[in-house]
Each structure stands twice: as structure tokens, then as C-alpha cells.
Protein 1
Amino acid sequence: MFTVSDERVSLYIHIPFCTTCCSYCAFYSEPKTQWNGNLDSYVQRLLQEVILVEQNVEGFDTIFIGGGNPGCLSLEQLTSLLSAAQKKKKSREVTIEMNPESFNESFFPLFEQNLVTRLSIGIQSMQDGVLTQLQRNARRIDNLKAIELAQKARALYGIDISFDLPH
């Protein structure tokens, strides 16, 4: 066993699932549909890893959950991962990425319970034509709705915008 006593330890949790795989993305991901109900077994194995790491540190200064699209997981699955990672101490900052089409009011408890302090919305573009070329599920209206929901959740949020995309 090892123990890390540095208070600046950060944790990145990769959720490798997407509703569809975008043409430009270089991050490892698989379509959520390929897991056909086995998503729980993946989350349970990931949870075991988080618990093992958490036992050997004094807590995590920051946590980032990215992907893929963490919005492919349920509120319960995300809550169990975040609770396990913050068992010893509350993290200073916890960021979760979500694609606009996945973010909805069912995720508000993550912010209300202070399990997540910041939302990163993967907008990429506000141009419907570009979003179509990138094989994104969301359109401009979905992007605007996700921003409105983030404000309604009273979440700190940022938006991801990509440049030099096809026209």
C-alpha cells in the first residue's frame, strides 16, 4: 500500500460512454448502447478503483469527471462515485462535463448537495451546420437550454467552444 500525504492530489475519472461518437473527438469513448444494461457493472468496477485510491490519500483537492459524456450515467451512479471520492474530505473543486443534450434537472441534486461545484458544458459550436458536421446530438437551441438549466441550478459553469471547425 502507498499513502500520499500531499494535499494537492487531484482525481480524474473518465467516463468512456457517449450517446454517439463525434467525428472530431480523440478521447476514448464507446457508444452507450454497446453496454446494453452492463453500465452498472462498469460503474461498480470504477467505484472499487476510486475507493482503493481514496484509501491511500488524505483526500482530493480537485476532482474532474470527463469523458466521453458523464451525462450517460444516472444521478445515482454519479452520486456514488463522487461520495466515495470525497469520503475523507470535501474537495475544493469538483467539475463534471456534460453534453448539452444530456444535462437536465435530474442532475440538480449534484449541485444542491455540493457534490459538484462546477459544470463544463460541451457546446463546441453555436452553429447548427457545424454541429451536424461534427455529428453532435445537440443543436443551438439545446446549447442555450443547457446554459439556462445551469443558471437555474445555480451552478458555476463553463462552456467548451472549439475553433477551426468545418464551416
Protein 2
Amino acid sequence: MALRKKPRKPATFPRYNLPTKKYCYFCKEEIDYIDFKNAKMLGKYISRYAKIEPRRRSGTCAKHQRMVAAAIKKSRFMALMPFIPY
């Protein structure tokens, strides 16, 4: 005779591991134009492998993420930022 298994409860995860909501820095500071000459500020949106950070990691909104990407690309073209990691 087979034993009946007890129904499993759904897995509950601890609340302390949930990431906090990220907000767009540029919306918060009401910045309309992202200057490509400000390499120090743009450096926060570059990974250690010199890749542009995605929205889910940087926390920027779609509008400002496009502006950040364009500014980084322009800054790289003008030799203000590296194409490859240091």
C-alpha cells in the first residue's frame, strides 16, 4: 500500500533578501541633458569591464538610459573615456 504524501506548502523566501527599488538619479535631480564631457559622472554607469550598465542595475529610467548610453558613446569617441577596461 502506497503512502500518501502531505501536500507541500509554497516556498516562502525571507523578506530581507529583496532588493530595494532603484530610482532614476536624473529624474530625481531634474537633469534634462546629460553632458558627455562629465566623464566622472558617466563612469558610474560603466561596469568594470568597460560595458554600459543595464537599466535594471543602474536604476535609470528608459529616457535617461538612452541619454546615458549616447553620452558614453560620444565620450568614448572623443577619447574622454576608454573603450576597454584599464
Protein 3
Amino acid sequence: MKLAKVFIRSELKNLTSNEINTFEGKGIYHDNQLSFIEDTISVTIHFLENKLKIVRKTDDYQLEMEFQKGSITEAISTLFKESHKIYLQVETNVLLWENNELTLHYQLMQNHVLINQFQYHLKFEVVK
């Protein structure tokens, strides 16, 4: 798909704390990459053939996560002011990407100990 302006709706459910965060807003989709600003966080989602990479960045931190269904991958949280990195593991249970819609179920672990479980759903449509 060529460069396109899109309208995004997303919902992130934290199954551990029962918190739900929703987002509606505009973004850009180009070459299998979706970019948007969620509150003050710059978000980039790169759709690869059988995996997904999400980068969330502010002036204070950057969180890079990679998802691959049925695999445990690495996530890195970089705290800029402290010059500190935190390494996490991401276990992806569900990764579906079709028709401009993403469904992602995953759990975050540190030192292979469960921290949180999440369900993420995102859908976007091209706007004129």
C-alpha cells in the first residue's frame, strides 16, 4: 500500500490488572508500517511476514517489542535519563494480521517470570 492517512482504533487489555486502554486517532500507513502518536508516545508498528515489531518512544524511554506466534522473543526497555536497559521476554500466543486488523495476545516476563498478560486489538481504515 502506498503512503496513506489512516484512522486507528485500538484497545489494550491488561489481563493481570484488569485495566483497559483505548485509543482513537490518525496515523500514517506505508510499506507495512503503521505510525501514530498515542497521547505523548510515538508508536511504530512494523508488520513483517510472520512477526511484528512495536516501538513505543517518548523523551524518557523507548520500548521495543518483537512478536512471533508460538515463540518467546526479547523486548528491550531503554530509560534514557538513567542510561539503563531492562530486558524482558515476550511470549506470543495469538498473532493475527489481516484486512488492516491486528489481534495480539501476549505475556511479558522478566527473567522468565510472568509480569503481565495482554490482549491488543487494533484496526485502521484509510481516510481521504
